[in-house]
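From the shared-data thread, chain only:
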Amino acid sequence: MKTIKLLILALVAITPFTGCAPEDDIKNSDLSPYLFYEEFLSVKEETEGDPLNILGWTNFAQAGTVKWNQGFYSGTKYAEFTSYQSNEPSNIAWLISPPINMDLLENEKLAFDVAQAYVSSSSNSIELLYSTNYDGTNVTAATWIPLTFTKPPLDYDTNFDFFSSGKIDLSDKDIFTGNINLAFRCKGSGTNFSLDGTYEIDNIRIFNEK
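Structure, as tokens:
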């Protein structure tokens, strides 16, 4: 981190972009239990900053050595990527979910919470992808298809506020059938200061919307 996150407490305010509960947009009486939910409860304060290691998940550094880290702040647990002080020209890291059986529900939606800090270039990016042929080992050999979600705006001044991704439609059974894996891929640089920002994700969930 480049700054102490206590600054956030002085900056918290309700704006058109964010609020105290970014997941509020998917909490209503029409939602049934989750097909998939990850809120990174295994993260511990004493291991904050260590590489994330969750059973069933893949944490893979494609370029450089930076992986997704354990994030912990003020009781909140999350996954975090940053190239800050990596001293490597390119960092590309993947965080890949366990297989998710899309045949168990209908009308599935995906949502998660995402935060960023010190991100000033679209090349310092976070992407959401899915695969139907990932074998659990060979990340770059699988076919990965991007999914569109709502990202924090590049020019948003308050760092580390969580935003809602919005609801991402996974209901098309011609596409989302059998097991799929979700992936969060981040790109950055530890030698280019415009690309050494931070991303955080939390509360990844797939649910049925009636």
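The chain has one helix and 13 strands.
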